Amino acid sequence: MEALGLDMLVKNVMEAAEEHRLWVSGDRIVVAVSGGPDSVAFLHIMHEISTRHTPLELICAHVHHGFRKASDQEAEMVKELAGRLGIAFEWIKADIPSYMKLTGLGSQEAARDRRYAFLHEVARKYDASSIALAHHADDQAETVLLHLLRGSGLSGLAGMRFKRREKNVELIRPCLRINKTDLVEACNTQGFPYVNDESNTNRKYTRNAIRLDVLPFLEQFNGQITPSLNRLAEIVGDEDEFMGQGALDAYSCLVQKNGGRQTFELPSFLKLHVALQRRLIKLILNYLPLDSDFVDFTRIETIRRKVTENDSTTWSLDLGQTFVCTREYDNISFGVRNEVQDQSYEYRLERWSGVCELSLMEINRQLRLFPLSPKDYLAPESADVAAFDADELIMPLVVRSRLPGDTMKVMGLNGSKKVKNIFIDEKVPPSVRPRIPVVCDGAGNIIWLPGVRRSSLAPVKEDTSAILYMTVGDSAIQG
């Protein structure tokens, strides 16, 4: 196949830029240049575009990694290149070995971290709209194969994207459809000086081994393995983007944020295709402040299977890093593990007259008691309200925390029922139960579980002459 000339390379890059909206006229772009043939050719391509086609302001950025003696000459060569083209030049001499000791990262990971950190620093300094990288089709094929060997999902098989936002700056890769041989040939034909990094032949680095050994081996079975992997990346990338949007739509429809927790209703989740179920869980986890490598397929699938099983209606699944996924009947929630235990408290109301407001500071609830004339009485329409025949109540009233073995005489039933079982029957979530106070009369009988049920004691009848009305709410609301 005949190598593409510089004009064709410019045309290829401009077509990719238009298709993926990589820039607009007047954009300020940081171009990463290592000094190798790929980035040198790319800088010339970008310079050609900026001077003859679309006005762009370019900044050439170079990182001296400090690994090799030749790095000094490479930095000087890139500086001279930028000067000849009339492009602003920024560079840094990074102490990668010291950074490796500090972080425990390998040389490749440490170099990448420092390189991208510097590129973002330059972008901030110049208020650039994007950082342009010279990754090409061969890099893409290596990336896809590397991700495949690591067991990646769709996002990994999509490889590198033409455009991806990171730290308020677009990372753009306009050369993803260009072969490395075309970039090298352009340098040789045009006489552009460049350097070859001998570390690229070191097979101890997995990417090098893939490029030097794995891809040539696979070419025995498919002579177009590199174009095939690039097509796979583009197809998967589009489908991954489509699925990602579907997950965002499902998130906006199903997930509610409440008190730092993300929740959804189980029946709605079960209607989703299994692929969207996984995507939705992944999205929820990504919104939690978790380590990036924490959200993997195994953890996502463990959560999904737990959510969809029918063994229990209430459970808690430890996700690590202080986070839990909990099910409370049909409600699934994600958030920080709740370490708050039931607090013991007791308030006594020896007598009451007029309106009485009782703030239960331990659970941030407020009880309000007030007398009501029978002629003004309307039967309560909410479990947050209860009415009693005041003359039949034994004083003093006591408002306290729940105790083991608590029972209550439930209206409409003969005998008593355990409070625990009342909560279960009413499907009160375990996380809500500690916030429900217990209201007792002077004989110790439970007369009301605010927000849940009232007892059969002291009901309002036709001949009732005095009514005690009680309401419950959050202190922040009623206060």
Write structural notes for this entry:
The chain has 479 residues and is an alpha+beta fold. The chain has three domains: 231 residues, HUPs (Rossmann fold, 3-Layer(aba) Sandwich); 82 residues, Uridine Diphospho-n-acetylenolpyruvylglucosamine Reductase, domain 3, CATH 3.30.465.60; 133 residues, Phenylalanyl-tRNA Synthetase, Chain B, domain 3. Helices cover 39% and strands 22% of the residues. The chain contains 15 helices and 22 strands. A six-stranded mixed sheet has the order 3-2-1-4-6-5, sandwiched between helices. Helix 6 crosses helix 10. It is elongated, with a radius of gyration of 34 Å. It starts with 5 loop residues before the first helix and ends with a helix. The model has no long low-confidence stretch (mean pLDDT 90).
Strand line-up across the major sheet: 3-2-1-4-6-5
CATH class of the largest domain: Alpha Beta
Number of distinct beta strands: 22
> What's the domain count?
3
Distance between the termini: 79 Å
Alpha-carbon Rg, integer: 34 Å
Compact description:
This protein has three domains: 6-236, Rossmann fold (3-Layer(aba) Sandwich); 255-336, Uridine Diphospho-n-acetylenolpyruvylglucosamine Reductase, domain 3 (2-Layer Sandwich), CATH 3.30.465.60; 346-478, Phenylalanyl-trna Synthetase, Chain B, domain 3 (Phenylalanyl-tRNA Synthetase, Chain B, domain 3, 3-Layer(bba) Sandwich), CATH 3.50.40.
Task: Note the main attributes of this structure.
single chain, 479 residues, alpha+beta, Rossmann fold, Uridine Diphospho-n-acetylenolpyruvylglucosamine Reductase, domain 3, Phenylalanyl-tRNA Synthetase, Chain B, domain 3, 3 domains, 5-stranded antiparallel sheet, 39% helix
